[in-house]
Design brief:
- The chain is mainly alpha-helical.
- It has a domain at about 1-75.
- It has helices at about 5-25, 25-40, 55-70, 85-95, 95-100, 130-155, 160-185, 190-195, 220-240, 240-260, 265-280, 285-305, 310-320, 325-345, 375-405, 415-430, 440-455, and strands at about 110-115, 120-125, 205, 210, 465, 470.
- The strands form three sheets. The chain has a two-stranded antiparallel sheet with strand order 1-2.
- β5 and β6 (about 470) form a beta hairpin.
- α2 (about 25-40) packs across α6 and α4 packs antiparallel against α15 (about 375-405).
- The radius of gyration is 23 Å and the shape is globular.
Length: about 475
């Protein structure tokens, strides 16, 4: 159980955000309100309030950032994309809640039949969804997208994009200290600070050592966060000059060492493959690669349904690297198969909440499957409509960026948007195995979308002095040229 300090931290984070919005430029205030909450606040702990979704570290940070922007900085926020394709996806993301609730009004009753003339003994019960759930889930959908809207409005400028990359790199360097400490003393920091351990401690033991976890939900989450920090440092090394390039190059090497210490084969693979991409390839090539990764991620369930993905061959290949990892991967695939069979019973709008999407024992209601990947959780909860809407909101910005970047001169193209697109696409790939969709993922998606729409809807704007020199007024398009239309 979380201690009192854990709940105190959740309650005081809005005050921290007020201070951030009073003292920092709006770009930095948004980034550190959301990223700081993700890295510092206690996992698992939450306030379960009536009529609204549970308020945890992610929702409190996102809501605090939005309120800080509106009422402390007194800045407006755009809640509607300019691209019609993103408008359709956003509407589907919000409205899918209605048919999901309406098609899941019936309760799920688990019972045992006994005796020669069967007598029914009810052993467990899951309620059907109601109007109250409709309100709660809708509010939750809105809160989930708050970082997306904030980034679309204020982090899609040149300075905002750079602040995202710098923020991730600095946060990774700072977080590496407790992370390396936990590889030595074991993952105990959350126990010392918040009074509990947030997961199964046995899963933090790997290869004769320890996986760090600090204040994140799992060691795999921390390992993937280090991937984003590593790629950000590499992007800064590519974009910087003179001593700054040397500094960020050293930071890149250091974060690669930290990532290796996190003992996650998948995250280490991302780092080893994508770091040279950040350092060596051009911006448009990076965007094209990001589009390939995002497309692979979004089509994965369809390929699974058609049996195109060679699961057995993947497990065999993994076994040659590590039998333990192969066993873990096979366990995940088996869970996915059962969850997919369950989801196909209500393919369009899913099973809704209350754990109704899980595979359970027919008599005891014991949970028989553990969903790991974000995609299977969304697919089982909201069906194909909800899945396409969510993954489309994440992949759509990359597609628009790829399309509109072709009409932009290289000299006018930001060196920071392609790295953010790569980080976003890598997150989507990781979501196939882990539920690593975080508020900062939505923030990256909003920033990429905002930049792509600046290319699509340019206009002449006055320039002002920004943190990194002359730049466009926040919330206005980046450069002026003739309007174009591709999508």
């Amino acid at each position: 159980m979380p201690n009192g300090f854990a709940y105190l931290m959740l309650m005081t984070w809005p005050l921290v955000c007020v201070a951030l919005f009073r003292r920092l430029p709006i770009e930095r205030a948004i980034i550190w309100s959301i990223l700081g909450g993700y890295l510092i606040l206690p996992p698992v702990a939450e306030f379960d309030l009536p009529l609204i979704p549970s308020m945890n570290k992610d929702s409190i940070a996102a809501l605090s950032a939005m309120l800080g922007c509106l009422f402390v900085a007194r800045k407006p926020v755009s809640f509607w994309p300019k691209s019609w394709s993103m408008q359709v996806l956003l509407a589907a993301f919000m409205l899918v809640v209605i048919p999901t609730v309406l098609t899941n009004r019936e309760p799920m009753v688990f019972e045992v039949l006994a005796g020669s003339e069967p007598i029914r003994f009810i052993t467990n019960y899951l309620p059907g969804m109601s109007v109250r759930d409709l309100l709660s889930v809708t509010i939750n959908q809105i809160i989930v997208l708050l970082p997306f809207f904030l980034a679309m409005t204020y982090l899609s400028s040149e300075s905002g994009l750079r602040e995202i990359i710098v923020g991730l790199a600095i946060a990774g360097l700072v977080y590496s200290i407790p992370s390396l400490l936990e590889t030595v003393i074991s993952p105990l920091i959350n126990i010392y600070v918040y009074g509990f351990f947030q997961h199964d401690f046995r899963q933090m033991i790997r290869d004769g050592g320890f996986r760090p976890i600090v204040f994140l939900p799992h060691g795999l989450w921390l390992a993937f966060f280090m991937v984003t920090a590593l790629l950000s440092a590499a992007a800064l090394a590519r974009a910087s000059k003179d001593k700054a390039r040397l500094y960020w190059g050293g930071a890149t090497l250091y974060l690669l060492i930290v990532l290796n210490a996190c003992k996650s084969l998948a995250s280490l693979s991302y780092g080893l493959v994508l770091t040279p991409v950040m350092l060596l390839l051009g911006e448009r090539t990076k965007i094209a690669l990001a589009l390939v990764l995002a497309t692979t991620a979004i089509t994965y369930p369809m390929l699974r349904n058609f049996g195109v993905i060679p699961l057995d061959a993947i497990v065999v290949q993994a076994e040659e690297i590590s039998p333990a990892r192969a066993q873990s991967l096979e366990y995940r695939f088996n869970n996915e198969e059962q969850m997919l069979d369950r989801a196909h019973e209500k393919p369009w709008f899913g099973w809704g909440g209350w754990g109704r999407n899980l595979v359970r024992h027919s008599e005891t209601a014991d949970i028989l499957t553990v969903p790991d990947g974000s995609w299977i959780i969304v697919f089982g909860t909201f069906g194909w409509v909800g899945y396409i809407a969510q993954m489309g909101l994440l992949a759509g910005p990359i597609l628009l960026l790829f399309a509109y970047s072709k009409l932009t001169p290289r000299s006018e193209f930001s060196p920071y948007v392609a790295p953010i697109a790569i980080i976003l696409a890598a997150t989507m790939m990781d979501m196939l195995l882990n539920a690593t969709l975080t508020p900062f993922t939505w923030l990256c998606a909003g920033a990429v979308l905002g930049y792509a729409e600046r290319l699509r809807f340019p206009a002449k704007t006055p320039e002002k002095e920004t943190l990194f020199g002359k730049g466009p007024v926040i919330g206005q398009p980046v450069r002026s040229s003739e309007k174009r239309s591709l999508l």
